[in-house]
Write a structure and sequence with these properties.
By secondary structure, this protein is an alpha/beta fold. The protein has twelve helices and 16 strands. The longest helix is centred in the first third of the chain and has 21 residues. Bound molecules: 4'-deoxy-4'-aminopyridoxal-5'-phosphate. It is found in: Cytoplasm.
């Protein structure tokens, strides 16, 4: 079933079938025509525990009948307090580094990143007002990064035809080369040189760049980059929007590198994926720099849905699920399940660069005409759809990021479809 009215504004619907989904549970999407799909990418990396988790659905229903939405400027409510306390307890801790102890709620990953940038610039602005530092505004970013689709988030992300129309509005950034294994020292030297120019902050997707092609880099590089920033007093911002909530095998990717950022953005799986919520966490020095009786120094970002009570109730339930259920056990089993099957796929001549980071797996398909904007990705998407699978390749990179509840049989069908894609499209 298609919805032609929406075609012009969907970036991925042109001339392709658009399945009409009516119901979902676990890793399964049910379509209007009675068929079903396995959700191989957690509906854009979001639904960690699977669709319509009964505990989260019940928490949403309870909260919707009690307190739905409250202006959060000057008011508060228990679901938000519970989530803020819970988040702070879960943040990566490193001896000698300040903790992420303060939480600002918003409603999407892009906004959480915007808030992170605003906090970083506000920090330096307020220190300049106090005569402690020069104002700083330059942001350093890692090559091939993606941080969202608002103007600020696009400015710090990879530039391409997909955001060319807005180039005049995007601000200038300092781009650090991606630390490919044979370019690690080059990347570190470039970062050190850029940090010496006193930028405001360096923002990274820790350990894996998602939309940029599921490119992984090792924990020692994340650690080395964070250390360089600390040495130069450049704020280190971790965008854990994709990597958070167990995706990389640990709750947050920064844990694997022993890194405690100055600012961190989280979203997607914060509610288990059922409803939008995001948070930006900051250390006390960033919070204190904004706390003042002088209204010129306050942090201004007040969107209507900040800390929406229903979304916070879902997030509080997600945190309870993490505390009370064996989510880590489920993740470990999934990590092993993917690793076993990836080994068989890795021998296929149509594939190269198999990689896995926790529950995220990616592999490159060696196909003719495999550029990011070629027809390959939509053709692959349609090919997988015909086999009952929701996947959304990035150029010639096919990746998997399933809900943690996907079962062995479903994983087998996913990998059978991947092999079939290699046979069909590989060179
Ligand atoms: N940062 C990263 C690393 C992401 O992967 C994404 C979303 N894919 C975002 C930010 C933006 O999040 P949202 O789509 O919720 O705005």
């Amino acid at each position: 079933m298609t919805s032609p009215v929406w075609h012009p504004f969907t970036q991925h619907g042109l001339n392709e079938p658009i399945p009409h989904v009516v119901r979902a549970e676990g890793a399964t999407l049910h379509l209007a025509d009675g068929s079903s799909l396995i959700d191989g990418i957690s509906s854009w990396w979001v639904t960690t525990h699977g669709h319509c988790h009964p505990r989260i659905a019940a928490a949403i229903a309870r909260q919707a009948g009690q307190l739905d939405q409250l202006i959060f400027a000057g008011y508060t409510h228990e679901p938000a307090e519970a989530v803020a306390r819970g988040l702070v307890d879960l943040m990566p801790q490193v001896p000698g580094r300040d903790r992420l102890a303060h939480v600002f709620f918003s409603d999407s990953g892009s906004t959480a990143v915007e808030v992170a940038l605003k906090m970083a610039l506000g920090y330096w602005h307020n220190r300049a007002l106090d005569g402690l530092d020069e104002a700083r505004s330059r942001i350093l970013v890692l090559e091939h990064s993606y941080h969202g689709d608002t103007i600020g988030a696009m400015s710090i992300g990879e530039r391409g035809v997909y955001n060319a129309a807005w180039t005049p509005l995007l601000f200038d950034v300092g781009t650090i080369p991606f630390p490919h294994p044979d370019r690690e020292q080059e990347a570190l030297a470039a970062l050190a040189a850029a940090c010496a120019q006193q930028p405001a902050a360096f923002i990274v997707e820790p350990l894996i760049l998602g939309a940029g092609g599921m490119l992984t880099y090792p924990p020692h590089m994340l650690r080395a980059m964070a250390d360089i920033c600390a040495r130069h007093d450049v704020l280190f911002i971790a965008d854990e929007v994709m990597t958070g909530w167990g995706r990389t095998g640990t709750l947050f990717a920064c844990e694997q590198a022993g890194v405690a950022p100055d600012i961190m953005a989280v979203a997607k799986g914060i509610t288990g994926g059922a409803i939008p919520l995001a948070a930006t966490l900051a250390t006390p020095r960033i919070f204190e720099a904004h706390r003042s009786t002088d209204r010129a120094r306050l942090f201004y970002h007040s969107s209507s849905y900040t800390a929406n009570a229903i979304a916070c109730a879902a997030a509080a339930e997600n945190l309870a699920i993490w505390r009370e259920e064996d989510v880590r056990g489920r993740i470990d089993a999934l990590v092993r399940g993917i690793a076993d099957r990836l080994a068989s796929l890795a021998g296929h001549p149509a594939f190269a660069n198999p990689r896995q980071l926790g529950t995220i797996m990616a592999i490159d398909l060696l196909a003719a005409d495999a550029g990011y904007l070629s027809d390959l990705a939509p053709r692959l998407r349609a090919f997988f759809l015909e086999r009952g699978l929701l996947l959304r390749p990035l150029g010639n990179t096919i990746y998997l990021m399933p809900p943690y509840c996907i079962d062995a049989q479903q994983l087998d069908s996913v990998f059978a479809a991947l092999v079939a894609a290699g046979d069909r499209f590989g060179m």
